[in-house]
Amino acid sequence: MSSSNQQPRTALLLIDIQDGFTHLTHWGPSRSNPSFEANIKSLLPIYRELISSTTSRTQTSPHKIIHVAHASKSAQSTLHPSKPGFAFQSFATPSTDELVIEKNVNSAFIGTDLEKLLRQHFDGAPGTLWVVGLTTDHCVSTSVRMAGNLGVCDGLDGEKGEVVLVENATACWKKSEDTPFDAEMIHAVHVDSLKEFASIAKTGQVEKLWKEWISDAN
Fold it and tell me: Which of 2, 70, 198, 203 is a Cys-bridge partner for 39, taking CB atoms 3.0 to 4.6 Å apart?
């Protein structure tokens, strides 16, 4: 992750932070990263402040928030649009001016306009895509891999942009009581495997950079 105070065009992608994932055992017997909720609660207001600080009457912000909701095709799923679990969790509820994309597979890029939206936002220049959300080993991993493969952050001249996974702003579940791999191990292995596709950062590092950008803009 770049530590430069020069602000590229960036986007914050929040994946599947929905009420259906609040059930303690539906997705597995235990979950990784108990700090997930606190870190999202901390990150999102700071990024919103960054957008506000770089917006004026004559200038739109170079930063954008995009929320992704999983819309299951199964009527029995807690993430089906007809179910209460489809709603965003209260601390990650989109503001009226923030984009919301619905998907029905693991990747946020398949069957959606996400790639087009990001390329339009980055406007031909290299940009940065910050990724947070649920779950580390499914939709987050798949979307990070596709973002890297598609080169959605790269400039038209070939200059590389950057996908950044905020590793402690994601979480996943242990798959069953029988597996020897606990949730934290699954989380760590998937984060490590994504280093081929993205930079890996922690919440504190990202917040520090954003606060520096906010200070520069004021």
Answer: 203
